[in-house]
Structures are given as C-alpha cells and as structure tokens.
Amino acid sequence: MTSDLRWIAFTAIAVLLGMAALGWMRPRRVGITSPQAMLLLGAAGMVAGLALDVQAMPFAAIASICSGSPRSLWSMMLLHAQLLPWMHAGMWAGGFMAVPLLRKLRPNCRRQYCARVVQNLACSAWMTVGMSVGVLAAAAIVAGIGVRAGAGAAPMFSGMVTGMVWGMVASVALYRLFFLVKDAVPHEAAPHAGR
Description:
Elements: H1 3-25, H2 34-56, H3 59-66, H4 73-83, H5 85-96, H6 98-105, H7 117-145, H8 147-150, H9 153-184
Helix pairs in contact: 1-9, 2-5, 3-9, 4-7, 5-7, 7-9
C-alpha cells in the first residue's frame, strides 16, 4: 500500500469514527443527527471551495507551504485563511445551510438538540481550528517518519478533513456537557414577594 493510500484509509476511518461519535452523542432517531447533517453540508462546501482555491494555486504547492516549516496553531490558521479562503467560506456556508434545513425538517425538535445559530457558529469555529490542528498533527507524523516517506498533499488533506470532523465532535461534546451540567444544577426557588 502506497503512502497516499494509507493516508486515505486513515482519513476514511477517522471520518467514520467521528460520524459514529456524533450519532452516539445525539438522541436516537431515524436518519442523521443535526451535527452529522451540518458536518456533511460543511464538508461539501469545503470541497467546493477548495476546488476554487486550487485554481489560483495547486494543492500540492499549498501543502508544501503549509508543511514547509514548524508553525504555531494561530499562524497555521492565518496561513490557511490566506491560502484557502474559498474552502473556509464554503465550509461555513455549507454548515449554515443546516440551520434552515433542519428547522424545516424538524419543527418540533427540542431546543438544545436542534441546529441553532449560536451552536452552528461554535461548531464552525471548532471545525476551522480542527483543520489547522489536523494539518499540524499530520506534519508532525510526516516529520516523525521521515519527509520522503510521507510528504505531499495527502497528509495535509487527511489532516484537514480529520481535524474538521473531530473539531465538530469536540464542539458537540462540549455543548452536550454544558446542558448536562446545567440540567444537573438544582434551580433555586424564586424569592417570595416582600423579601
């Protein structure tokens, strides 16, 4: 198996595990969950935007720039925003399509389980951060196994996709944790009038 095929296999497994984690964290129902819908629409937007970005610069050149020297998370995020603006715009736009779509399909859904604008913003932000974390992790793996053994566009793309998916998982896990803690804290009784 070539190095690129290994990265593709790793990405496929990471995406499937991420989708399973998102399904496990949400209430059981027929079809896909809200985060899964948002992730799929965001991924479609990401790929469409990436197709526009690579018209200006080939993806292999972008990958070479991103993996060229060690970077901090913030500098990687800025570099991604500069080199891949349409990819980011497509991911955010695709993810936001889930809000009206799921509200239309599930009008009676409980507030905390439906796609909401604030939740969508948080998820999109986590996916954006996750993409850069994934690229940094892939670059560290490539450096660990030797540049010749794993360099190229495949590690960067794998890192971006894997990071995006697990950024969404982290966002949903924190969102769920917030509601679990909020529901577990006993509410104080309202003070009586005159006190």
